[in-house]
Amino acid sequence: MKLRMFCSLLIGFLCVIATAPTYSQDGQADEGKKTVSATGCVRAGVEAGCLVLKDTKTSTLYNLYFTGKAPDIDAAISFDGEFHDGVTHCMQGTAVTVTKWAPIKMHCPKEE
Known about the structure:
Structural class: alpha+beta
Strand content: 25-35%
Distance between the termini: 79 Å
Number of helices: 1
Largest sheet: 5 strands, mixed, barrel
Radius of gyration: 22 Å
CATH architecture of the domain at 35-103: Beta Barrel
Order of helices and strands: HEEEEE
CATH class of the domain at 35-103: Mainly Beta
Shape: elongated
Number of strands: 5
């Protein structure tokens, strides 16, 4: 009887462990990289060296990090990217590491 109860508890414990999410070192659930696509005008962020873009469809503000050449300020672009892991110094918008971007035909008025 005790052996049967022990086996039942052991099986239950193993089932719980098998279905639990895995976590990375920073404590976030490891569900793979989440991607995002957006379109808008590149603007200077509040902090020096930061670039932001407000999506024309959702009005979501993104803090953009480019691994290669970055577009000019006030350029209209469409981009694909992955949500950025870790802390940033820009303090604005959702941080995104841009994996691909292209200029688009759209008027971006100069900000004053």
